Structure prediction request, 299 residues.
Amino acid sequence: MNMHVPEQLVIRPPSEAKSLLVRVVRGCHWNRCAFCGIYDLFGVPYSQRSLEDVLKDIDALSERYGDIFTTAFLGDADPLNLDASFLIEVLRHLRLKFPRLKRITSYGRASSLAKKSQEDLSALSEAGLNRVHVGFESGCDQVLRLQKKGTSQRQLVDAGRKVMATGMELSFYFLLGLGGRDLWKEHAGESAKVLNEVKPHFIRIRRLYIHPLSRLSEKLKTGDFREQTPEGTVLELKYLLEGLDAEGSTFACDHANNYLQVFGRLNAEKDRMLGIIDAFLALPERQRIAHYESIPSVI
Ligand code: SF4
Prediction:
């Protein structure tokens, strides 16, 4: 009997709720985004894991669960920052121990993806990495700088196109409210440009939650950041969607903290989705306010 205890992840995307979770790296090597602080919150500093330990985790998970999983997710924040050769070993071992896996996915920072050669990304795809989740958050350089995201509009487009060229599925996460009340139009408008250039398979929408321990919370107190209003968030969603021309992308507000759960294929269902937003905005004010108050603020 294998006595090795596999390590656990801090977070995973909602779409990976039923996936086998494999910790390839601990925490986030960047860990500077002003709005984030998730790994500080959970007290997880960044450190790399040895290949031997990760492979032992996979062996122990296989003994514990058998071959029941059809999807797997690699964490924590940015495994794609590791050497391709390391990840290929992990992917091959996973495929060997869990032959029923149809999908293996990972978080990846755009800067890490942009640094990888097209050959390395294709080799990862061939080794079995099928989907990458990128928290692009914003395509607006001003917002990216303000939030210390450590990437740029150009890099986002470059990274996105490279991933799409491999045939891997790409999820881009947009964060409503990240430009605050002052930069919301630039935030949504410039983000639409990135999404139109890349046309990722999934455009996933999240709403900014300012955790009291995040650096952004300090900016809020000093007045350097003015938080977006609930109604402003809905207008921002509408402005983003209006600017999209991303044929083939799926648009999904698939998180509990979104004020509106709009979901559909672009461009065919764009008008239907805009219709849902307009119908909500046409409701009496007290109904809209009651709705905003009913939505939880969660990470
Ligand atoms: S948002 Fe992602 S890249 Fe930025 S600090 Fe948090 S985990 Fe790291």
In short: The CA atoms of residues 188 and 236 lie 6 Å apart. Residues 51-65 form the longest helix (15 residues).
